[in-house]
Every structure is written in C-alpha cells, then in structure tokens.
Amino acid sequence: MPNIATFLKAEITRLARKEIRGEIGALRKSSTAHRRDIAALKREIATLQRQNKQLSKRAAGASQVAAETGETEVKNRFSAKGFKSLRARLGLSADQLATLLGASMQSVYNWEHGKTVPRANQVAAIAALRTIGKKEALRRLEEAQAAEKPSRKR
Hints:
The protein is an all-alpha fold.
C-alpha cells in the first residue's frame, strides 16, 4: 500500500508542477511585453525631453533677438461687425473700400457678413485704415482711382 500512496503523491506533484509551469509561462510573456513597452516609453520620453529643451532654447534665443532688435510683432484682429462699422465711419461704399484695400467688392461683402476672413496682408491694410478719417480716405481713394485709369485704357 505504501507504493500506491507514494505513487499518487508523485503523480499529484507532477500534475501540479505542469499546471504551474503553464500559468507561469503566460505571466512571463506578459511581463516581458510590459517591460518592452515600458522601455519604449522611456526612450520616447527622453527623446521628447531633448526636443523640448532644444525648442525652448530656440524660443528663448528668438525672443532675445527680437528684444535686441526692437521688433515686436503686432497681431491684428478682425471682426465682421468692426469692419462694417469702419466702412460706415469712413462713409465709403463696398466698391470704394475694395478699391482702397486692393480687393474685390465681393470680398468686402463676404468679410462684412462674416462669410470669409481676410488674409493677413488684408487685415494689416484694414488696420491701417482704422487710423485715418473720412477726408484722408477720400484722398487715398482718388489717388487709387487715378492710378487705375491709365491701366484701364489699354
């Protein structure tokens, strides 16, 4: 009888080890995959930190150069309502304002109604018009129309 007891004990031990080996194998695979992912993320973080450092140095250098040269970039804002009130304040038609800005009458209409937004160079021209009065606007309009007439005769 002792042979059966030892045989059963040995068989149970063998089966238990086999089960454990199967479970541990799956855990090892997932652990290896996690370690590989963590290493890749660490490399990516290091790369991003280097890039961040380089970009911050460039930005600091650019702002220092701008401060030394006295250059300050002015961002002009545009709103359809403000553009419409500018045209009304200057007492100009959409066609006249388009001539002053070097744009089409349809563009001025679309800008006023908020359908489109002018390009940066047009926004700068609009900002320049904000500083003038009616008389100056009419004088510039006459100059622009006089400059256009010879080109129309061709």
